[in-house]
Each structure stands twice: as structure tokens, then as C-alpha cells.
Design brief:
By secondary structure, this protein is α/β, with parallel strands linked by helices. It contains 14 helices and eleven strands. It folds into two domains: 238 residues, Aldolase class I (TIM Barrel); 66 residues. It has an eight-stranded parallel beta barrel, surrounded by six helices. A two-stranded antiparallel sheet has the order 1-2. Helix 4 packs parallel to helix 6, helix 9 packs across helix 10 and helix 13 packs antiparallel against helix 14. Belongs to the dus family. One of its GO terms (molecular function) is flavin adenine dinucleotide binding. This is tRNA-dihydrouridine synthase. Pfam families: Dus.
Length: 328
């Protein structure tokens, strides 16, 4: 069943999670091409974007042909959050997402991200400012709470809905857990009971089996996949096919796979420029090779080559690899 936000429906309800340094324009475009209900940008620092810092603007860039894009903004001050939301909506973002889930110390030390869950009243002032600033739907992504003694996601979710938030995504961990242990999907269920807007479950959803378990345990209306899509941009479409009966993706293998990886690599060079693109692409190349069980020598060649033409020549050898290994 599609998730409706404002005048738009997002179907299937299998969404790409925002991941810092990962869900940039080249990767979002590739995931969207295989099929995804919604793709979310990496987190954008609201003040940096308003002050036109190039790196922040690049994170929010929509990318040609990616219509189902949400831009996630983070910050501490209502005026910067509101202005960043206006800028993103003006540049074509279909949805504005508010980050209240990032656990990174450099974010929480500035009292942004999941640190906002320690100050619900202040968090609500930011939500109200963003909702008032734009005509597009505003969504919220958060965790279960700051720690096990403050599992206040249901309370914050109910207040966020009253303030005009159109959808809520909950990662099934507290901030203090970071990414340790196993996401507690059942702990998301009280949030579902507290709101009437669509709820999306997130955390440790890497394939159709884990997506189904997350939906059953949480009662959520959809799932958001992050790390499960690394090295497998078709994963969201694969999950949607098994859960919602959408057409299964044509998962590339052999020469088709090496061509896709080369295309992704070249798109990153075009987007970032050669020097930065070479560095940013290595993590994606590593994830592709993880799924292919790539021989050590070829892996080293691909990750250490200094010239794009040498990297592309080495990627071509991935055509001889077996089909990508599915996520466990």
C-alpha cells in the first residue's frame, strides 16, 4: 500500500535511508533507477546550506531525473532550519526530512541530530518552524530515545504529528546504542500506536526477510533501508518485489554488472571532480566487491589505482565474477 504525503503517493513503501557520505546524487539516482518509493539525501547542515557552503549544497543536490527525492536537514536553530527547508523546496525537493536521529558525536555535541530528543520542547520549535516555512510535506526521522531510560519517541511523535509532520521514521535503537547490537523493531510499535500519520521502520533491514520481520514487529506502514543497499542498489526493488508484488529488478551480473559499477564510478567523478571523486568512490567499489567475493589482488588493484582509466580497466575484470552475493 503506498504512503501518501501531501498530494503525492510513494509506492512501494520501501525507502532509501539518508546516510552521510553515501546517499549522494550518483547513488540516489542509481537506487531510484532500479526502483524505490522514496530516496533521501545525506544529512545537510542547515546553517551551512543557507550560507552557501559548496559541500552542503552538494549533499542536497537533487540530481536530474530523481523526482522522488527527500532532502534531510539538521540543525539547532529554527531560523536556519526554516530557511534551509525553503531553499531545498525551492530547488525541487518533494519532501523535507528533519534529522533527529544522527548519533554521531560531532552532531550531538552541537545539540543537533538525536540530541534533540533530550529537549522535546526545543525540538518541537524546530519542527514548527520548518512546517511553517514550506508547502511540501515535512517528515521526521528519529531514534527510540537518547538512552534506555528515556524512550520518548512515542511522545515526540505525537507532538510532531500535531505540529504538522506528515510521516515519521524510527530507527529501532537509542542514540547511546549507536549501531551496536540489534535494532529493536518491536520497540517501534508504541510509536505506531501514538500517531495516525504513516510510520516507517528503520534499522538492520537488509533484505526481504528482515523487512517482513520489521513490519510484523513494529506494525509500520513501510521500511527504510540504509546499509543493506550498500553495494546492492537494487536491494530496495528486490525487497519491494517480494513484499508488495512489484516487478522484480533485473539484477546485473557479469559484463552488465561491471558496466553498472563503471557507470556509477564515472558519475561520482563527474559529480565531485576527479580528485575527490576518486576518494569518495572507493567505499562504494569496496562494497560492490564485498558482495562479489572479489580476489584480493583485483580488489587491491581497484582500490589503489590512482588514475580513473586504470580503475575502469580493473573494474572490467569484475565481469568474470559470479553473480552478486545476496545480503545475509
Amino acid at each position: 500500500m503506498p504512503i501518501t504525503l501531501g498530494a503525492c503517493s510513494y509506492d512501494p513503501p520501501v525507502f532509501l535511508a539518508p546516510m552521510a557520505g553515501i546517499t549522494d546524487v550518483p547513488f540516489r539516482s542509481l537506487v531510484a533507477r532500479f526502483g524505490a518509493g522514496l530516496v533521501v539525501s545525506e544529512m545537510v547542515a542547515s546553517q551551512e546550506m543557507v550560507q552557501e557552503k559548496p559541500a552542503a549544497r552538494a549533499r542536497a543536490a537533487l540530481g536530474l531525473g530523481v523526482a522522488n527525492t527527500s532532502v534531510q536537514i539538521a540543525g539547532r536553530e529554527a531560523r536556519w532550519m526554516a530557511e534551509a527547508a525553503r531553499l531545498c523546496a525551492g530547488e525541487g525537493a518533494r519532501v523535507i526530512d528533519i534529522n533527529m536521529g544522527c548519533p554521531a558525536k560531532k552532531v550531538t555535541n552541537g545539540w543537533s541530530g538525536s540530541a534533540l530528543m533530550r529537549e522535546p520542547d526545543h525540538a518541537l520549535s524546530l519542527i514548527e518552524a520548518v512546517v511553517a516555512a514550506v508547502d511540501v510535506p515535512v517528515t521526521l526521522k528519529m531514534r527510540l530515545g537518547w538512552d534506555d531510560d528515556s524512550l520518548n519517541a512515542p511522545e515526540i511523535a505525537a507532538r510532531a504529528e500535531a505540529a504538522g509532520v506528515a510521516m515519521i521514521t524510527v530507527h529501532g535503537r537509542t542514540r547511546c546504542q549507536f549501531y551496536k547490537g540489534q535494532a529493536d523493531w518491536a520497540a517501534i510499535a508504541p510509536v505506531k500506536e501514538a500517531v495516525t500519520v504513516p510510520l516507517v521502520a528503520n534499522g538492520d533491514i537488509v533484505d526481504a526477510a528482515s523487512a517482513r520481520k520489521a513490519l510484523d514487529a513494529s506494525g509500520a506502514d513501510g521500511v527504510m533501508i540504509g546499509r543493506g543497499a550498500q553495494g546492492a542498489p537494487w536491494m530496495l526493488a528486490e525487497v519491494a518485489a517480494e513484499l508488495h508484488g512489484t516487478p522484480p529488478p533485473d539484477i546485473p551480473a557479469g559484463a552488465a554488472l561491471s558496466d553498472m559499477i563503471s557507470e556509477h564510478y564515472e558519475a561520482m567523478l563527474d559529480f565531485y571532480g576527479q580528485e575527490l571523486g576518486l576518494r569518495c568512490a572507493r567505499k562504494h567499489l569496496g562494497w560492490y566487491m564485498d558482495r562479489l567475493d572479489t580476489p584480493t589482488a583485483l580488489r587491491r588493484e581497484i582500490l589503489t589505482a590512482k588514475r580513473p582509466e586504470a580503475v575502469l580497466a580493473a573494474i572490467a575484470h569484475l565481469a568474470d565474477a559470479p553473480a552478486p552475493r545476496r545480503a545475509a
